[in-house]
TrEMBL record:
It comes from the Bacteria. Residues 43-156 form the Ferric oxidoreductase domain. This is Ferric reductase-like transmembrane domain-containing protein. PANTHER family: PROTEIN-METHIONINE-SULFOXIDE REDUCTASE HEME-BINDING SUBUNIT MSRQ (PTHR36964). GO terms for cellular component: plasma membrane.
């Protein structure tokens, strides 16, 4: 019973929704700076869930005999969709906080702003096509489309790092460093397997 409850998709969605509870309470508190104060948390959780989703494949390669990476792999799309919705909340809160200024040339031309916008726009088709129906409809093209998440990740890293005159570099690197290490391992492992096949 406990295992079936833990494995149920709704349980995982509930876990992914937990950070949104204090955010929602803060937004409905009536505080004048509620939208502004939630910009960082929503953006950070969007990045965190994206990073976790991207880490799953190299983790499966690293821990081949472990069951937990496979458990995560079955839920990777949930993580991606959750990342999108936190990014959507981040974007909406930014628009509320900045108002008309958000669309001015001086604002949009900032590195930390336009990188965020492009990353979000990349997220949109990835989230829309995350359903089983779209996976079947797109076939092999679905995986090619999902590769754009790497561009979104790089843009998100720059967006985060460039905040407050590059004051976000430390936090951004702390979050993205594990992903970078695992991706390097994935590339190395893939290259080793190709070399082994060539030799045999």
């Amino acid at each position: 019973m406990l295992k079936s409850t833990w494995d149920h998709p709704l349980t995982f969605w509930a876990l992914l929704s937990l950070p949104a509870i204090p955010m929602t309470l803060g937004l409905t508190s009536g505080a004048p700076d509620a939208a502004s104060s939630l910009l960082h948390p929503t953006g950070e959780f969007a990045a965190r869930f994206m990073i976790i989703a991207m880490m799953i494949t190299p983790l499966m390669m690293l821990f081949r005999d472990a069951s937990w990476p496979r458990w995560l792999m079955k839920r990777r799309r949930y993580l991606g969709v959750a990342a999108f919705f936190y990014a959507l909340a981040h974007t909406v809160l930014y628009l509320i906080d900045e108002g008309a200024i958000a669309f001015t040339g001086g604002e949009v031309s900032k590195l930390n702003i336009w990188t965020g916008w492009i990353a979000f726009l990349i997220f949109v088709p990835l989230a829309v096509t995350s359903t089983d129906a779209w996976v079947r409809r797109l076939g092999r093209s679905w995986k090619k489309l999902q590769q754009f998440v790497y561009a979104a990740a790089i843009l998100t890293l720059i967006h985060w790092a460039a905040l407050h005159d590059w004051g976000g570099v430390g936090a951004a690197l702390v979050h993205f460093a594990p992903l970078a290490v695992l991706e390097m391992y994935r590339l190395w492992s893939t290259q080793q397997r190709r070399r082994h096949r060539t030799l045999t």
